Amino acid sequence: MDHREFVAALPRDTKQKLTLKSDRKGLTALAVHLGAVVLLAILIGLRVPLWPVLLVPQGILIIFLFTALHETIHRTAFKTAWINDAVAHLCGFLILLPADWFRYFHFAHHRHTQDPEHDPELASPKPETWRQFAWHVSGLPIWAFHVSTLVRNSRGQCADGFVPASGRPKITREARRMLVGYGVLAAASVALGSSLLLFAWIVPALLGQPFLRLYLLAEHGRCAFVANMFENTRTTFTNRLVRRLAWNMPYHAEHHAFPGVPFHRLPQFHALTRAHLMETEDGYWRFHEKYVQALDG
Q1: Distance between CA 2 and CA 74 in Å, rounded?
Q2: pLDDT tens profile 44-82
Q3: Of 60, 39, 61, which Cα lies nearest the Cα of 51?
Q4: CA distance 224 to 203
Q5: Are 78 and 27 in contact (CB under 8 A)?
Q6: DSSP state of 115
Q7: DSSP alpha helices (H): ranges in the chain?
Q8: The pLDDT value given to residue 194
Q9: Contacts 24+ apart (CB under 8 A), 90-97
Q10: Where would I find the H helices in 46-167?
Q11: From its phi and psi, is residue 129 left (phi > 0), alpha (psi between -120 and 50) or beta?
């Protein structure tokens, strides 16, 4: 049974329960995530003893706002639509990834998961050598890609096939607003002689990006190029802390099988799908241990 047959066979009331959204659940998760970011930013700003040690956990928290962005562009993080959109733009701004553009990119990924000709995530192949792996995990390629995408979109030069012509003016406006926002923050920091944004946001994000690269590689890395989401997407079993940090996206095959299920109901959906999953792994360490063993020299 593939994912389409499985979801189609679910009773109607089960589907309804699985797709119930909640502002309370979403706001609680967001408050915990952003609250931790703000707390560490304050401690870094106050230069508490050993404050440089906080840069890495701060970076992990900031860069994993990608998973909050991911959930909100699906508009499943919150019941209220405008809250989803507002949080998506905030998270996108913090990690240099425009939310409206990413929605088009990500929905194309869902429509064509693991299709080498149409999945935009496969435009850059997964690393197959040690050198490619190190370059990928450094995070430098993705930062370069984000910057070039933002600049190109701001010039009205978006040529991505997954962005319809009707959506390109919105993409252009979004990129320009983001660039203006970054400019204002940079000018204010210089005028105030403050390094707070540098050490509480920018440097941590650079340090945190490798952790996100490693995490994301497990979602589809070395999975089959087939249409069945139970086979082309991996669910990784991990601890509660990682699941909370990633908004339950380690249940990734479940998410791809039924994207309408909000993050807080994915554990329930996993209980139903577990026997059908064809790609699972017991932890990210084990996944990468196997991955690097297969790398070429």
Answers
A1: 22
A2: 999 999 999 999 999 999 999 999 999 999 999 999 999
A3: 39
A4: 36
A5: yes
A6: -
A7: 3-9, 12-18, 23-45, 55-63, 65-73, 81-94, 99-111, 130-138, 140-154, 168-192, 196-197, 203-220, 229-232, 240-245, 252-257, 266-273, 284-293
A8: 97
A9: 91/65, 91/66, 92/178, 93/178, 93/181, 94/62, 94/65, 94/201, 94/205, 95/62, 95/63, 95/65, 95/66, 95/69, 95/205, 96/143, 96/146, 96/147, 96/150, 96/178, 96/205, 97/66, 97/69, 97/146
A10: 55-63, 65-73, 81-94, 99-111, 130-138, 140-154
A11: beta
Strand (E) or helix (H) holding 294: none
Q: Which helix (H) or strand (E) holds 222?
A: none
Tell me how far apart the alpha carbons of residues 19 and 1 are, in angstroms, rounded to a whole number. Answer: 21
pTM to 2 decimal places: 0.97
Residues in the chain with pLDDT < 70?
none
Residue 277, both tokens: 């999953």
H/E segment holding residue 236: strand 235-237
pLDDT at 297: 74
Look up residue 162 and give its two tokens: 């997954």
Q: How many residues does the chain have?
A: 297
Encode 58-83 in three state secondary structure.
HHHHHHCHHHHHHHHHCCCCCCCHHH
38 vs 193: CA distance, rounded Å: 20
Instruction: Tell me if 206 sits within 8 A of 136, measured CB to CB.
Output: no
Q: How far is the C-alpha of 272 from the C-alpha of 247, rounded, in Å?
A: 19
Q: Say if CB 93 and CB 86 are below 8 A apart.
A: no
Residues 6 or more apart from 183 whose CB is under 8 A from it?
Answer: none
Give the per-residue pLDDT at 1.
87
